[in-house]
């Protein structure tokens, strides 16, 4: 670790910040928590990161044992970045920080974007296992061009990019989804004012808000 990044304290928090506290590091980890990715995939998911910074962060995270490179079998042969076991231990940290930060989101800033990885991690962050026990349902969430399949199965969540083959409810929403999950509007209000549209049983939107909540 470069000396200028050291805090000079023999402390687990200080050491952790030396590893993942640099700008963009936790967002790289967020995207790798969704799935292993090629360098170009990471660039696509973090379009505003300078290429030299992405390369530097990956090198630093690899040196710290958080990220590793693997080469896919031929004929592909691409280099893919994935989290090590040590790196995956950051998941509860990322989820807790995301949940804490979501309370300060407000309305999106003019230059802010959504990505498939950020939506998937947002749903994993807001998922309330205790409210999902005994529930089996397939949701398809559409936010602009992003489509995410959310499968809830008796307290467990599977969240992946792409459409659900047989959705019980399709939800289309923009930034209004945050207000819905924060209970600032009710499902009925959101549907009535057109900020959220659904296809399927509207009652399942009430369960959606119970299971995913900020």
Automatic annotation (TrEMBL):
Acyltransferase among keywords: no
Any Pfam family the entry gives: SCP2
SUPFAM superfamilies found in the cross-reference section: SCP-like, Winged helix' DNA-binding domain
Gene source species: Cryptosporangium minutisporangium
This protein's record includes keyword DNA-binding: yes
Keywords: DNA-binding, Transcription, Transcription regulation
Protein name as annotated: Winged helix-turn-helix transcriptional regulator
Ranges of residues in domain HTH hxlR-type: 11-109
Origin: domain of life: Bacteria
């Amino acid at each position: 670790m470069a000396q200028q990044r050291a805090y000079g304290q023999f402390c687990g928090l200080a050491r952790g910040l030396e590893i993942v506290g640099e700008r963009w590091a936790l967002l790289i980890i967020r995207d790798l928590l969704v799935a292993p990715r090629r360098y170009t995939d990471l660039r696509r998911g973090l379009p505003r990161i300078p290429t030299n910074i992405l390369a530097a962060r990956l090198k630093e995270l690899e040196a710290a044992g958080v990220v590793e490179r693997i080469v896919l079998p031929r004929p592909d042969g691409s280099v893919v970045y994935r989290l090590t076991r040590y790196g995956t231990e950051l998941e509860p940290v990322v989820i807790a920080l995301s949940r804490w930060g979501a309370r300060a989101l407000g309305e999106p800033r003019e230059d802010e974007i959504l990505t498939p990885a950020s939506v998937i991690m947002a749903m994993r962050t807001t998922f309330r296992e205790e409210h999902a026990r005994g529930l089996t349902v397939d949701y398809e969430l559409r936010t602009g061009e992003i489509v995410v399949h959310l499968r809830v199965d008796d307290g467990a969540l599977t969240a992946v990019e792409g459409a659900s083959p047989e959705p019980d409810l399709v939800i289309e929403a923009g930034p209004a989804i945050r207000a819905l999950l924060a209970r600032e509007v009710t499902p009925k209000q959101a549907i009535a004012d057109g900020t959220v549209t659904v296809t399927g049983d509207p009652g399942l939107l009430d369960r959606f808000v119970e299971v995913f909540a900020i």
